[in-house]
Amino acid sequence: MTAPRRPAARRIPARTWFDFATVLVALILYSVAWPTLFVTHDVSPAAAPLLSALAAFPILFVRVNPALGWAISAGAALLFSIAMQPAVDNDLPFQVVHIIVLFVLLFAVALRAAAPIVVVAWAATSMLFATTMPGSQSGPLWGWVMGFGALALFGYLVRILLASRRKLERQEEVTELERARRAILEEKARIARDLHDVVAHHMSMVVVQAQTAPYRITDLDPASRAEFESIGATARTALNEIRGLLGVLRSDGQLPEHAPQPRASDVPTLCASALRAGLPVDWTVTGDLASVPETTGLVVYRVVQESMANCARHAPGAAVHVAVAVDPGEVRVSVHNAATATVSQPGAGGGHGIDGMRARVVAVGGELHAGSTLSGGFEVSVKLPTH
């Protein structure tokens, strides 16, 4: 079954929507500037479309190049104030549409352009308005200077705020990525330590058997004795190399020979300990847990341990049921919790518990399934080979 496709409108980038809105606003401003130009200024009908376009269309540069749009709009405003004659009842040198466009473009320059360009745009716009607007005969209009200065300063502060937020978001993404990588590396190192401890045990047994073979088996010829000595030496070398490699991974200062690993037979003890700690857990065991191999038994123990931790973390107070069944050739584990009002999906908080369990299970050739139950709880079920 294919995933549902999002509506086409949602797939359009926000930048494209902004461009559509800008074009629409420009057309609206143009439709206002053209007919009102004859009311505010004495112009010929042939020149009106071009003059209205110079007043309204520079806003189209608000995203792609606001400094260029501001320069065109400011230059056109200066030209209008010099070459165009206002109507009798109008004392503004250029249209209100032109003023709106200049305001918008100056704010966009403060948001997007370099600081020197922002200062130049603010100074030139303030000078333009101070020298052309009504009242300039009595001196510069400092109100325009302060007003445009406040607008440019506000735009620049918004720009700094947005830049800081983007930088913070990028830093949070990097931090989250590093946290995830660290969790994965720690889980891999933990699996490596577990595998080392199991392999080291068996290799130690190989060394002991090879060294004691000449004393347990009578009538060995010299070639056989030399072969057993070679096997023992090779096993000791391999064991030392494994311990040296683990020393790079181990960060807790604990030596592998001092860290015995749990077995499947320790699962009831684990459940009892969780029950004493306050987790409402019950468990059933079918078959002989002692017959489960060490490697598989370690995975069984870790799966139960991590699953109960997930239950306590994501469904506090919910009853937890643990079932372990040992059958010929395989062992099955099931851990599920009942639904609660505060239940959340394991892994929703950014953890890697299920991924770590799956890595352990796959490493020994097993299968893991995790998901919600029909009753609203969550279940982890595992099948592991025992041969």
TrEMBL record:
<keyword id="KW-0418">Kinase</keyword>
<dbReference type="InterPro" id="IPR050482">
    <property type="entry name" value="Sensor_HK_TwoCompSys"/>
</dbReference>
<keyword id="KW-0067">ATP-binding</keyword>
<dbReference type="GO" id="GO:0016020">
    <property type="term" value="C:membrane"/>
</dbReference>
<keyword id="KW-0597">Phosphoprotein</keyword>
<feature type="domain" description="Signal transduction histidine kinase subgroup 3 dimerisation and phosphoacceptor">
    <location>
        <begin position="187"/>
        <end position="252"/>
    </location>
</feature>
<protein>
    <recommendedName>
        <fullName>histidine kinase</fullName>
        <ecNumber>2.7.13.3</ecNumber>
    </recommendedName>
</protein>
<dbReference type="InterPro" id="IPR011712">
    <property type="entry name" value="Sig_transdc_His_kin_sub3_dim/P"/>
</dbReference>
<dbReference type="Pfam" id="PF07730">
    <property type="entry name" value="HisKA_3"/>
</dbReference>
<feature type="transmembrane region" description="Helical">
    <location>
        <begin position="20"/>
        <end position="37"/>
    </location>
</feature>
<keyword id="KW-0812">Transmembrane</keyword>
<keyword id="KW-0472">Membrane</keyword>
<dbReference type="GO" id="GO:0005524">
    <property type="term" value="F:ATP binding"/>
</dbReference>
<keyword id="KW-0808">Transferase</keyword>
<dbReference type="InterPro" id="IPR036890">
    <property type="entry name" value="HATPase_C_sf"/>
</dbReference>
<keyword id="KW-0902">Two-component regulatory system</keyword>
<feature type="transmembrane region" description="Helical">
    <location>
        <begin position="68"/>
        <end position="86"/>
    </location>
</feature>
<feature type="transmembrane region" description="Helical">
    <location>
        <begin position="141"/>
        <end position="162"/>
    </location>
</feature>
<keyword id="KW-0547">Nucleotide-binding</keyword>
<keyword id="KW-1133">Transmembrane helix</keyword>
<dbReference type="GO" id="GO:0000155">
    <property type="term" value="F:phosphorelay sensor kinase activity"/>
</dbReference>
<dbReference type="GO" id="GO:0046983">
    <property type="term" value="F:protein dimerization activity"/>
</dbReference>
